[in-house]
Amino acid sequence: MYRFNFQPVFDNLDMLAYGAWLTVQLSFTAMAIGLIVSILGAVAKTSSIRPLRWIVDVYVEMIRNTPFLIQIFFIFFGLPALGISMSPNTAALVALVVNVGAYGTEIIRAGIESIPRGQIEAGRALALTPTQIFRYVVLKPALRNIYPSLTSQFIYLMLTSSVVSVISANDLAAAGADLNARTFASFEIYLVLTIMYFLLALGFSTLFGTLRRVFFNYPAGR
Amino acid sequence: MRLTRRLFAALAATTLIAAPALAADLQTVRDAGTIRIGMLVDFPPFGIQDASGNPGGYDADVAIALAEHLGVEAQIVPVTGPNRIPYLLSGQVDVLVASLGITAERAERVDFSIPYAGIAIGVYGGTDVAVAGPEDLAGKSISVARASTQDTGVTEVAPEGTEIRRFDDDASAVQALMSGQVQTIGLSNVVFSQIAGVAGDRFDKKFDLSSQVQGIAVAPDSDALLEEINAFVTEARTDGTLDAIHQEWLGEPLPEFVKTAE
User: Fold this and answer.
1) Domain that includes residue B41, residue range
2) Residue B85: which of B62, B112, B67 has the closest Cα?
3) Which N-terminal stretch is annotated as signal sequence (chain B) (predicted)?
4) A177 contact residues in B (CB cutoff 8 A)
5) Can you give the residue ranges of every domain in chain A?
6) Within this chain, do residues B44 and B89 fall inside the same structural domain, yes or no?
7) Residues B107-149: pLDDT tens digits?
8) Mutate which: B166, B177, B184, B202, vs A, most A CBs within 10 A
Protein backbone atom coordinates (compact mmCIF):
# COMPACT_ATOMS: atom_id res chain seq x y z
CA MET A 1 0.00 0.00 0.00
CA TYR A 2 1.10 3.53 -0.74
CA ARG A 3 2.29 5.39 2.33
CA PHE A 4 1.49 9.07 2.31
CA ASN A 5 4.29 11.32 3.36
CA PHE A 6 3.47 14.99 3.45
CA GLN A 7 6.65 15.91 5.31
CA PRO A 8 8.54 17.02 2.16
CA VAL A 9 5.61 19.27 1.27
CA PHE A 10 5.34 20.83 4.71
CA ASP A 11 9.10 21.32 4.91
CA ASN A 12 9.02 23.27 1.65
CA LEU A 13 5.75 25.16 1.99
CA ASP A 14 7.63 28.46 1.69
CA MET A 15 8.91 27.39 -1.72
CA LEU A 16 5.37 26.52 -2.87
CA ALA A 17 3.96 29.71 -1.35
CA TYR A 18 6.54 31.74 -3.27
CA GLY A 19 5.59 29.83 -6.43
CA ALA A 20 1.93 30.65 -5.79
CA TRP A 21 2.82 34.33 -5.38
CA LEU A 22 4.64 34.24 -8.74
CA THR A 23 1.58 32.65 -10.35
CA VAL A 24 -0.64 35.39 -8.88
CA GLN A 25 1.70 38.11 -10.15
CA LEU A 26 2.02 36.55 -13.59
CA SER A 27 -1.73 35.93 -14.02
CA PHE A 28 -2.76 39.30 -12.64
CA THR A 29 -0.37 41.20 -14.92
CA ALA A 30 -1.49 39.09 -17.87
CA MET A 31 -5.16 39.79 -17.05
CA ALA A 32 -4.59 43.55 -16.76
CA ILE A 33 -2.61 43.87 -20.01
CA GLY A 34 -4.85 41.26 -21.64
CA LEU A 35 -7.93 43.36 -20.82
CA ILE A 36 -6.41 46.37 -22.58
CA VAL A 37 -5.45 44.23 -25.61
CA SER A 38 -8.96 42.76 -25.68
CA ILE A 39 -10.65 46.16 -25.58
CA LEU A 40 -8.40 47.50 -28.35
CA GLY A 41 -9.02 44.32 -30.34
CA ALA A 42 -12.78 44.57 -29.90
CA VAL A 43 -12.79 48.25 -30.90
CA ALA A 44 -10.76 47.40 -34.00
CA LYS A 45 -13.05 44.52 -34.83
CA THR A 46 -16.18 46.65 -34.63
CA SER A 47 -14.63 49.62 -36.42
CA SER A 48 -15.56 50.63 -39.96
CA ILE A 49 -11.96 50.38 -41.18
CA ARG A 50 -11.78 47.10 -43.09
CA PRO A 51 -7.99 46.34 -43.05
CA LEU A 52 -8.02 46.84 -39.27
CA ARG A 53 -10.80 44.28 -38.94
CA TRP A 54 -8.87 41.83 -41.11
CA ILE A 55 -5.71 42.16 -39.04
CA VAL A 56 -7.63 41.49 -35.83
CA ASP A 57 -9.46 38.59 -37.51
CA VAL A 58 -6.15 36.96 -38.44
CA TYR A 59 -4.79 37.47 -34.92
CA VAL A 60 -7.88 36.09 -33.21
CA GLU A 61 -8.24 33.08 -35.51
CA MET A 62 -4.53 32.24 -35.35
CA ILE A 63 -4.44 32.25 -31.57
CA ARG A 64 -7.81 30.61 -30.96
CA ASN A 65 -7.07 27.74 -33.33
CA THR A 66 -3.59 26.78 -32.11
CA PRO A 67 -2.56 25.18 -28.81
CA PHE A 68 -1.16 27.46 -26.11
CA LEU A 69 1.81 25.12 -25.65
CA ILE A 70 2.87 25.69 -29.26
CA GLN A 71 2.38 29.45 -28.91
CA ILE A 72 4.61 29.68 -25.87
CA PHE A 73 7.27 27.47 -27.52
CA PHE A 74 7.14 29.68 -30.59
CA ILE A 75 7.58 32.86 -28.57
CA PHE A 76 10.42 31.52 -26.43
CA PHE A 77 12.33 29.29 -28.86
CA GLY A 78 11.24 30.63 -32.23
CA LEU A 79 11.39 34.41 -31.91
CA PRO A 80 15.12 34.54 -31.01
CA ALA A 81 15.73 33.48 -34.63
CA LEU A 82 14.19 36.83 -35.59
CA GLY A 83 16.35 38.62 -33.06
CA ILE A 84 13.61 38.94 -30.41
CA SER A 85 14.91 37.32 -27.25
CA MET A 86 13.00 37.43 -23.97
CA SER A 87 13.66 36.01 -20.53
CA PRO A 88 11.46 32.99 -19.71
CA ASN A 89 9.24 35.00 -17.36
CA THR A 90 8.73 37.78 -19.90
CA ALA A 91 8.07 35.26 -22.67
CA ALA A 92 5.49 33.57 -20.43
CA LEU A 93 3.76 36.89 -19.78
CA VAL A 94 3.76 37.81 -23.47
CA ALA A 95 2.37 34.40 -24.43
CA LEU A 96 -0.42 34.67 -21.86
CA VAL A 97 -1.32 38.21 -22.91
CA VAL A 98 -1.36 37.29 -26.61
CA ASN A 99 -3.50 34.25 -25.83
CA VAL A 100 -6.04 35.87 -23.52
CA GLY A 101 -6.17 38.94 -25.78
CA ALA A 102 -7.57 36.86 -28.63
CA TYR A 103 -10.30 35.25 -26.54
CA GLY A 104 -11.03 38.55 -24.77
CA THR A 105 -11.39 40.37 -28.09
CA GLU A 106 -14.18 38.05 -29.16
CA ILE A 107 -15.93 38.23 -25.79
CA ILE A 108 -15.85 42.03 -25.58
CA ARG A 109 -16.83 42.35 -29.27
CA ALA A 110 -19.96 40.36 -28.46
CA GLY A 111 -20.60 42.76 -25.57
CA ILE A 112 -20.20 45.85 -27.75
CA GLU A 113 -22.50 44.40 -30.40
CA SER A 114 -25.14 43.75 -27.73
CA ILE A 115 -25.53 47.49 -27.14
CA PRO A 116 -28.71 48.63 -28.94
CA ARG A 117 -28.19 51.41 -31.51
CA GLY A 118 -30.86 53.42 -29.79
CA GLN A 119 -28.73 53.69 -26.69
CA ILE A 120 -25.87 55.24 -28.66
CA GLU A 121 -28.29 57.58 -30.37
CA ALA A 122 -29.59 58.56 -26.95
CA GLY A 123 -26.02 59.44 -25.99
CA ARG A 124 -25.72 61.63 -29.09
CA ALA A 125 -29.02 63.28 -28.31
CA LEU A 126 -27.63 64.19 -24.89
CA ALA A 127 -24.67 65.89 -26.67
CA LEU A 128 -22.06 63.52 -25.26
CA THR A 129 -18.67 63.54 -27.01
CA PRO A 130 -17.75 60.38 -28.99
CA THR A 131 -15.24 59.47 -26.27
CA GLN A 132 -17.87 59.81 -23.60
CA ILE A 133 -20.31 57.78 -25.66
CA PHE A 134 -17.76 54.99 -26.09
CA ARG A 135 -16.75 54.99 -22.45
CA TYR A 136 -20.10 55.30 -20.68
CA VAL A 137 -22.70 54.28 -23.23
CA VAL A 138 -20.90 51.45 -25.04
CA LEU A 139 -17.92 50.00 -23.15
CA LYS A 140 -19.19 49.99 -19.58
CA PRO A 141 -22.57 48.36 -20.31
CA ALA A 142 -20.81 46.02 -22.75
CA LEU A 143 -18.37 44.88 -20.07
CA ARG A 144 -21.25 44.47 -17.67
CA ASN A 145 -23.10 42.24 -20.14
CA ILE A 146 -20.17 39.91 -20.78
CA TYR A 147 -18.61 40.12 -17.32
CA PRO A 148 -19.17 36.44 -16.40
CA SER A 149 -17.60 35.11 -19.64
CA LEU A 150 -14.67 37.49 -19.36
CA THR A 151 -13.87 36.62 -15.76
CA SER A 152 -14.15 32.89 -16.35
CA GLN A 153 -11.73 33.37 -19.27
CA PHE A 154 -9.38 35.15 -16.84
CA ILE A 155 -9.58 32.33 -14.32
CA TYR A 156 -8.90 29.89 -17.13
CA LEU A 157 -5.85 32.01 -17.97
CA MET A 158 -4.58 31.61 -14.40
CA LEU A 159 -4.97 27.82 -14.64
CA THR A 160 -3.34 27.77 -18.10
CA SER A 161 -0.36 29.64 -16.70
CA SER A 162 0.65 26.36 -15.06
CA VAL A 163 2.26 25.23 -18.33
CA VAL A 164 4.76 28.09 -18.47
CA SER A 165 7.32 25.92 -16.67
CA VAL A 166 7.98 24.21 -20.04
CA ILE A 167 10.08 27.25 -20.95
CA SER A 168 11.58 27.25 -17.44
CA ALA A 169 9.55 30.25 -16.27
CA ASN A 170 8.97 30.33 -12.53
CA ASP A 171 5.50 29.71 -11.18
CA LEU A 172 3.62 27.44 -8.81
CA ALA A 173 3.74 24.41 -11.12
CA ALA A 174 7.50 24.86 -11.64
CA ALA A 175 8.04 25.06 -7.88
CA GLY A 176 6.05 21.83 -7.54
CA ALA A 177 8.04 20.11 -10.28
CA ASP A 178 11.35 21.15 -8.72
CA LEU A 179 10.23 19.91 -5.33
CA ASN A 180 9.04 16.67 -6.91
CA ALA A 181 12.43 16.18 -8.56
CA ARG A 182 14.12 16.45 -5.18
CA THR A 183 11.76 14.51 -2.96
CA PHE A 184 9.82 12.13 -5.28
CA ALA A 185 6.65 12.68 -3.26
CA SER A 186 4.68 13.22 -6.48
CA PHE A 187 1.21 12.43 -5.28
CA GLU A 188 1.44 14.54 -2.13
CA ILE A 189 2.97 17.49 -3.99
CA TYR A 190 0.41 17.49 -6.79
CA LEU A 191 -2.44 17.06 -4.32
CA VAL A 192 -1.28 20.16 -2.46
CA LEU A 193 -0.76 21.96 -5.79
CA THR A 194 -4.31 21.12 -6.81
CA ILE A 195 -5.64 22.59 -3.57
CA MET A 196 -3.48 25.70 -4.00
CA TYR A 197 -4.68 26.28 -7.58
CA PHE A 198 -8.26 25.80 -6.44
CA LEU A 199 -7.80 28.38 -3.68
CA LEU A 200 -6.17 30.80 -6.13
CA ALA A 201 -9.10 30.38 -8.54
CA LEU A 202 -11.51 30.92 -5.66
CA GLY A 203 -9.58 34.04 -4.64
CA PHE A 204 -9.68 35.50 -8.13
CA SER A 205 -13.35 34.68 -8.43
CA THR A 206 -14.08 36.51 -5.16
CA LEU A 207 -12.03 39.48 -6.37
CA PHE A 208 -14.02 39.61 -9.61
CA GLY A 209 -17.27 39.43 -7.66
CA THR A 210 -16.20 42.43 -5.57
CA LEU A 211 -15.14 44.38 -8.66
CA ARG A 212 -18.52 43.69 -10.23
CA ARG A 213 -20.36 45.06 -7.21
CA VAL A 214 -18.15 48.17 -7.14
CA PHE A 215 -18.23 49.08 -10.83
CA PHE A 216 -21.44 47.67 -12.22
CA ASN A 217 -23.76 48.23 -9.30
CA TYR A 218 -26.52 50.10 -11.06
CA PRO A 219 -29.96 48.99 -12.18
CA ALA A 220 -30.19 47.16 -15.49
CA GLY A 221 -31.33 49.41 -18.32
CA ARG A 222 -33.56 46.95 -20.09
CA MET B 1 6.47 -15.36 -28.32
CA ARG B 2 7.58 -12.14 -26.71
CA LEU B 3 5.75 -13.12 -23.55
CA THR B 4 7.37 -16.55 -23.35
CA ARG B 5 10.77 -14.96 -23.81
CA ARG B 6 10.11 -12.55 -21.00
CA LEU B 7 8.77 -15.33 -18.82
CA PHE B 8 11.83 -17.38 -19.56
CA ALA B 9 14.12 -14.48 -18.73
CA ALA B 10 12.28 -14.00 -15.46
CA LEU B 11 12.53 -17.71 -14.69
CA ALA B 12 16.20 -17.67 -15.56
CA ALA B 13 16.67 -14.73 -13.26
CA THR B 14 15.00 -16.52 -10.36
CA THR B 15 16.81 -19.82 -10.81
CA LEU B 16 20.08 -17.90 -10.88
CA ILE B 17 19.77 -17.10 -7.23
CA ALA B 18 20.23 -20.78 -6.49
CA ALA B 19 22.27 -22.04 -9.44
CA PRO B 20 25.94 -21.19 -9.75
CA ALA B 21 26.86 -18.87 -12.61
CA LEU B 22 27.94 -20.58 -15.79
CA ALA B 23 31.43 -19.42 -16.59
CA ALA B 24 32.44 -19.00 -20.21
CA ASP B 25 35.61 -20.84 -21.10
CA LEU B 26 37.99 -19.33 -23.60
CA GLN B 27 38.82 -22.77 -25.02
CA THR B 28 35.12 -23.62 -25.49
CA VAL B 29 34.60 -20.36 -27.35
CA ARG B 30 37.60 -21.04 -29.59
CA ASP B 31 36.43 -24.62 -30.25
CA ALA B 32 32.93 -23.43 -31.12
CA GLY B 33 34.35 -20.84 -33.50
CA THR B 34 31.75 -18.28 -32.41
CA ILE B 35 31.37 -16.04 -29.42
CA ARG B 36 27.89 -15.10 -28.29
CA ILE B 37 27.88 -11.41 -27.42
CA GLY B 38 24.94 -9.78 -25.66
CA MET B 39 24.24 -6.16 -26.53
CA LEU B 40 21.49 -3.59 -26.16
CA VAL B 41 19.71 -2.61 -29.36
CA ASP B 42 17.62 0.17 -27.86
CA PHE B 43 20.33 2.47 -26.56
CA PRO B 44 21.48 4.78 -29.36
CA PRO B 45 24.12 5.53 -30.34
CA PHE B 46 25.69 2.65 -28.39
CA GLY B 47 23.28 -0.04 -29.49
CA ILE B 48 20.74 0.30 -32.26
CA GLN B 49 18.99 -1.80 -34.85
CA ASP B 50 19.45 -0.65 -38.43
CA ALA B 51 16.70 -0.52 -41.04
CA SER B 52 17.09 -4.20 -41.90
CA GLY B 53 17.00 -5.24 -38.25
CA ASN B 54 20.72 -5.86 -37.84
CA PRO B 55 22.40 -4.66 -34.65
CA GLY B 56 24.56 -1.59 -35.07
CA GLY B 57 26.11 1.15 -33.00
CA TYR B 58 29.23 1.58 -30.92
CA ASP B 59 28.75 -1.65 -28.98
CA ALA B 60 28.14 -3.69 -32.14
CA ASP B 61 31.35 -2.46 -33.76
CA VAL B 62 33.32 -3.11 -30.57
CA ALA B 63 31.77 -6.59 -30.36
CA ILE B 64 32.83 -7.40 -33.91
CA ALA B 65 36.35 -6.08 -33.28
CA LEU B 66 36.54 -8.21 -30.14
CA ALA B 67 35.51 -11.35 -32.03
CA GLU B 68 38.11 -10.56 -34.67
CA HIS B 69 40.75 -10.24 -31.97
CA LEU B 70 39.77 -13.64 -30.60
CA GLY B 71 39.75 -15.09 -34.10
CA VAL B 72 36.14 -16.27 -33.92
CA GLU B 73 32.78 -15.29 -35.40
CA ALA B 74 30.63 -12.79 -33.49
CA GLN B 75 27.08 -13.89 -32.82
CA ILE B 76 25.22 -10.88 -31.49
CA VAL B 77 22.34 -11.59 -29.10
CA PRO B 78 19.99 -8.68 -28.38
CA VAL B 79 19.43 -8.21 -24.64
CA THR B 80 17.57 -5.58 -22.64
CA GLY B 81 18.68 -3.46 -19.72
CA PRO B 82 17.04 -5.54 -16.99
CA ASN B 83 17.81 -8.99 -18.43
CA ARG B 84 21.37 -8.50 -19.65
CA ILE B 85 23.09 -9.78 -16.48
CA PRO B 86 20.74 -12.81 -16.18
CA TYR B 87 21.54 -13.66 -19.84
CA LEU B 88 25.24 -13.62 -19.04
CA LEU B 89 25.05 -15.53 -15.76
CA SER B 90 22.80 -18.23 -17.22
CA GLY B 91 25.31 -18.87 -19.98
CA GLN B 92 23.10 -17.74 -22.86
CA VAL B 93 25.78 -15.28 -23.88
CA ASP B 94 29.53 -15.51 -23.35
CA VAL B 95 30.17 -11.82 -22.87
CA LEU B 96 28.21 -8.60 -22.61
CA VAL B 97 29.19 -5.59 -24.67
CA ALA B 98 26.03 -3.92 -23.50
CA SER B 99 26.93 -0.45 -22.23
CA LEU B 100 27.10 -1.91 -18.75
CA GLY B 101 28.22 0.83 -16.36
CA ILE B 102 30.85 -0.39 -13.93
CA THR B 103 29.43 -0.20 -10.43
CA ALA B 104 30.53 -1.91 -7.22
CA GLU B 105 27.13 -3.58 -6.94
CA ARG B 106 27.36 -5.14 -10.40
CA ALA B 107 31.02 -6.09 -9.90
CA GLU B 108 29.82 -8.53 -7.23
CA ARG B 109 27.81 -10.43 -9.83
CA VAL B 110 29.96 -10.21 -12.96
CA ASP B 111 33.60 -9.61 -13.82
CA PHE B 112 34.34 -6.39 -15.67
CA SER B 113 37.05 -5.72 -18.20
CA ILE B 114 38.87 -2.41 -18.15
CA PRO B 115 36.56 0.35 -19.47
CA TYR B 116 35.88 0.41 -23.20
CA ALA B 117 33.38 3.26 -23.23
CA GLY B 118 31.94 5.94 -20.98
CA ILE B 119 29.25 8.52 -20.59
CA ALA B 120 30.30 11.87 -19.19
CA ILE B 121 28.06 14.61 -17.89
CA GLY B 122 29.55 18.00 -18.56
CA VAL B 123 28.85 21.67 -19.06
CA TYR B 124 28.81 22.81 -22.66
CA GLY B 125 28.32 26.25 -24.14
CA GLY B 126 28.94 28.66 -26.98
CA THR B 127 32.57 28.83 -28.04
CA ASP B 128 32.56 32.56 -27.18
CA VAL B 129 31.38 31.96 -23.59
CA ALA B 130 34.32 31.96 -21.19
CA VAL B 131 33.74 29.22 -18.64
CA ALA B 132 36.65 27.14 -17.41
CA GLY B 133 35.19 25.75 -14.21
CA PRO B 134 32.11 25.84 -11.99
CA GLU B 135 33.13 29.18 -10.42
CA ASP B 136 32.79 30.89 -13.82
CA LEU B 137 29.09 29.99 -13.97
CA ALA B 138 28.23 32.88 -11.62
CA GLY B 139 26.13 35.41 -13.51
CA LYS B 140 25.60 33.02 -16.42
CA SER B 141 22.54 31.06 -17.43
CA ILE B 142 22.59 27.27 -17.76
CA SER B 143 19.82 24.95 -18.94
CA VAL B 144 19.33 21.41 -17.67
CA ALA B 145 16.66 18.74 -17.92
CA ARG B 146 14.76 18.80 -14.64
CA ALA B 147 15.68 16.00 -12.20
CA SER B 148 18.37 14.58 -14.49
CA THR B 149 21.88 13.59 -13.41
CA GLN B 150 23.12 16.86 -14.89
CA ASP B 151 20.53 18.84 -12.89
CA THR B 152 21.88 17.31 -9.68
CA GLY B 153 25.47 17.81 -10.82
CA VAL B 154 25.04 21.44 -11.86
CA THR B 155 23.00 22.35 -8.79
CA GLU B 156 25.78 20.89 -6.62
CA VAL B 157 28.67 22.86 -8.11
CA ALA B 158 26.99 26.06 -9.33
CA PRO B 159 28.05 29.11 -7.31
CA GLU B 160 25.71 31.80 -5.99
CA GLY B 161 24.35 33.90 -8.86
CA THR B 162 24.10 31.11 -11.42
CA GLU B 163 20.82 31.19 -13.28
CA ILE B 164 19.80 27.54 -13.51
CA ARG B 165 16.96 27.07 -15.99
CA ARG B 166 15.18 23.73 -15.64
CA PHE B 167 13.31 22.30 -18.63
CA ASP B 168 11.17 19.19 -18.92
CA ASP B 169 13.66 17.20 -21.00
CA ASP B 170 17.03 17.32 -22.74
CA ALA B 171 15.41 18.34 -26.02
CA SER B 172 13.95 21.57 -24.57
CA ALA B 173 17.17 22.32 -22.68
CA VAL B 174 19.14 21.90 -25.92
CA GLN B 175 16.61 24.08 -27.76
CA ALA B 176 17.15 26.82 -25.18
CA LEU B 177 20.90 26.68 -25.85
CA MET B 178 20.52 26.59 -29.63
CA SER B 179 18.11 29.55 -29.69
CA GLY B 180 20.45 31.57 -27.50
CA GLN B 181 18.10 31.72 -24.51
CA VAL B 182 20.81 30.31 -22.24
CA GLN B 183 24.59 30.55 -22.51
CA THR B 184 25.48 27.09 -21.24
CA ILE B 185 23.94 23.68 -20.74
CA GLY B 186 24.48 20.63 -18.54
CA LEU B 187 24.41 17.60 -20.85
CA SER B 188 25.81 14.14 -21.43
CA ASN B 189 28.49 13.73 -24.08
CA VAL B 190 26.19 11.32 -25.93
CA VAL B 191 23.46 13.91 -26.46
CA PHE B 192 26.05 16.59 -27.14
CA SER B 193 27.53 14.51 -29.95
CA GLN B 194 24.07 14.47 -31.53
CA ILE B 195 23.63 18.25 -31.35
CA ALA B 196 27.18 18.81 -32.58
CA GLY B 197 26.01 17.17 -35.80
CA VAL B 198 23.29 19.83 -36.16
CA ALA B 199 25.00 22.89 -34.73
CA GLY B 200 28.50 22.29 -36.06
CA ASP B 201 31.25 23.88 -33.96
CA ARG B 202 29.21 26.67 -32.37
CA PHE B 203 29.46 24.94 -28.98
CA ASP B 204 32.24 23.24 -27.05
CA LYS B 205 32.82 21.52 -23.73
CA LYS B 206 33.57 23.75 -20.76
CA PHE B 207 34.20 21.21 -17.99
CA ASP B 208 33.21 17.74 -16.77
CA LEU B 209 30.71 17.17 -13.98
CA SER B 210 30.83 13.42 -13.54
CA SER B 211 31.45 10.34 -15.58
CA GLN B 212 30.43 6.71 -15.69
CA VAL B 213 32.64 4.21 -17.44
CA GLN B 214 31.34 1.02 -19.03
CA GLY B 215 33.05 -2.33 -19.17
CA ILE B 216 32.75 -5.56 -21.10
CA ALA B 217 31.36 -8.14 -18.67
CA VAL B 218 31.93 -11.87 -18.34
CA ALA B 219 30.55 -14.36 -15.84
CA PRO B 220 32.73 -14.94 -12.75
CA ASP B 221 35.55 -17.49 -13.11
CA SER B 222 36.05 -16.81 -16.81
CA ASP B 223 39.57 -15.57 -16.11
CA ALA B 224 41.22 -16.74 -19.33
CA LEU B 225 38.54 -15.09 -21.43
CA LEU B 226 38.65 -11.90 -19.35
CA GLU B 227 42.41 -11.72 -19.77
CA GLU B 228 42.03 -11.89 -23.55
CA ILE B 229 39.31 -9.24 -23.47
CA ASN B 230 41.48 -6.95 -21.36
CA ALA B 231 44.33 -7.44 -23.83
CA PHE B 232 41.90 -6.51 -26.63
CA VAL B 233 40.62 -3.37 -24.88
CA THR B 234 44.14 -2.21 -23.98
CA GLU B 235 45.24 -2.64 -27.57
CA ALA B 236 42.11 -1.09 -29.06
CA ARG B 237 42.32 1.91 -26.73
CA THR B 238 45.88 2.66 -27.83
CA ASP B 239 45.96 1.69 -31.50
CA GLY B 240 43.04 3.91 -32.48
CA THR B 241 40.46 1.17 -33.07
CA LEU B 242 38.13 2.48 -30.37
CA ASP B 243 38.86 6.09 -31.38
CA ALA B 244 37.67 5.34 -34.90
CA ILE B 245 34.50 3.57 -33.74
CA HIS B 246 33.79 6.31 -31.20
CA GLN B 247 34.33 8.96 -33.87
CA GLU B 248 31.85 7.20 -36.13
CA TRP B 249 29.03 6.86 -33.60
CA LEU B 250 29.63 9.70 -31.14
CA GLY B 251 31.42 12.27 -33.26
CA GLU B 252 34.58 12.47 -31.17
CA PRO B 253 37.52 10.15 -30.32
CA LEU B 254 37.26 7.98 -27.21
CA PRO B 255 37.23 10.46 -24.31
CA GLU B 256 40.37 10.74 -22.21
CA PHE B 257 38.60 9.71 -18.99
CA VAL B 258 37.83 6.31 -20.55
CA LYS B 259 41.34 5.80 -21.91
CA THR B 260 42.97 6.47 -18.56
CA ALA B 261 40.44 4.54 -16.45
CA GLU B 262 41.60 1.24 -15.00
Assistant:
1) 2-118+214-259
2) B112
3) 1-23
4) 146, 166
5) 11-215
6) yes
7) 988 999 999 999 889 999 999 999 999 999 999 999 999 888 8
8) B166
Residues A49-87: pLDDT tens digits?
999 999 999 999 999 999 999 999 999 999 998 989 899
Contacts of B172 in chain A (CB under 8 A): 166-167
B10 and B111 housed in the same domain:
yes
Where is average pLDDT lowest: A120-134, A180-194, B14-28, B211-225?
B14-28
Q: Rounded to an integer, what distance in angstroms lies between the CA atom of residue B35 and that of residue B87?
A: 14
What are B219-255's pLDDT values in tens digits? 998 899 999 999 999 999 999 999 999 988 887 888 8
How many domains does one find in chain B? 2
Distance from CA of B170 to the nearest CA of A (A): 12
B29 and B112, same structural domain?
yes
**Is B46 in the same domain as B152?**
no
- Which residues from chain B sit within 8 angstroms of residue A19, using beta carbons? none
Count of CB atoms within 10 A of residue B161's CB?
A: 9
- Domain A11-215 sits in CATH at 1.10.3720.10
ipTM of this predicted complex?
0.76
B162 with B153: CB under 8 angstroms? no
Q: Are residues B8 and B85 in the same domain?
A: yes
Q: How close, in Å, is residue B10 to chain A by CA atoms?
A: 24
Q: Does residue A180 sit at the B interface (CB-CB below 8 Å)?
A: yes
Q: Which residues of A76-107 are buried (b: 16+ CB within 10 A; e: fewer)?
A: bbebbeeeeebbbbebbbbbbbbbbbbbbbbb
Residue B222 and residue B114 share a domain: yes
Q: State the first-to-last Cα distance of chain B, in angstroms, to the nearest integer.
A: 41
